[in-house]
Amino acid sequence: MAFQIVRAAPPPAPLLRAENVSLEYGAVCATHEVSFDVYRGDRFVLLGPSGCGKSSLLKAAAGFIKPAGGAISIDGREVTGPGPDRMVVFQEFDQLPPWKTVRENVMFPLLMTKRLNRHQAEERARHWIAKVGLAGFENAHPHTLSGGMKQRVAIARALAMQPDILLMDEPFAALDALTRRNMQEELGRLWEELRFTLLFVTHSIEEALVVGNRILLLSPHPGQVRAELNSHQFGLASAGSVEFQAATQRIHGLLFGGVEDASGAPEAATINTSPVISNVILAHAGIHAEYPITRSMDPRLREDDGAGARADGNVSRIAEKA
Ligand SMILES: Nc1ncnc2c1ncn2[C@@H]1O[C@H](COP(=O)(O)OP(=O)(O)OP(=O)(O)O)[C@@H](O)[C@H]1O
Ligand SMILES: [Mg+2]
Questions:
Q1: pTM of the model as a whole
Q2: Ligand 1 close to Cβ of residue 51 (< 6 A)
Q3: How many whole angstroms separate alpha carbon 168 and alpha carbon 295?
Q4: pLDDT tens by residue, 121-138
């Protein structure tokens, strides 16, 4: 039996860090002390029931609203307002000014922020419009496009700015099921090619599993962290598989039905009490995450299997090789 000592350098610093973020609208408490870290290249999903504060968290990350408590930082700088480093795609189709053509819509932030001159902006817009599959529609106005096409324009407009992080708030929720699936696939393809960092909000468990590599589960109003999961093993190709169904039921149980493990797997074997173990940290340490749940805020889930890797800032582990 051979042993291999795997020791990693300290994990990379997160790109976006939310620390104990409490968001309030007057007397309404939208979230309570929510913390999470998004690393470069993550497809990080905020998942939870309606009203748990997902959109509010995204808006706070975008700099549209200020936390009543805690802070959000990007690359170590506190977010104090909107910036071109964080582009947002919303659910609403009317996020595109209707009087502008597709090309003008994509060019608009590039020109507004004076990043590029008109000629450069036109070139950049042409490139991104083609990337999202809309070549030939440059001169079309939004009202002549389908919902899916409008969302493609919004994605092209956001990615053309080459933001540090793309923020998406239920971008496909208003689309029919088939188009939604196509858009999820398209987003996956874009990510495979570009490896941008994504913070994605949804209340669909299936969509969270398909889109995300990490999922933060939020409890109902006010939103609090319930658990954090690794979901990199799932995608559209695995949707419908036994594992996918089990993960879906499991998340449903965590969100709505206490802590029963619908997959039938013993809880103690899958729960880890470490603060956060991200795929990135594990990958950094040369460890493949076998266990989907990396953090649980539910005291009933705080059992330690003793086998999972620790994200203690200096991950080290002896991996046993057969
Ligand atoms: N502008 C606002 N003024 C007052 N209360 C608000 C405002 N925006 C959101 N809220 C409240 O904050 C809480 C969280 O809302 P938020 O829109 O962030 O939830 P959500 O998780 O995105 O829900 P959904 O899935 O329905 O979009 C809710 O109770 C909501 O009523
Ligand atoms: Mg919302």
A1: 0.82
A2: yes
A3: 23
A4: 999 999 999 999 999 999
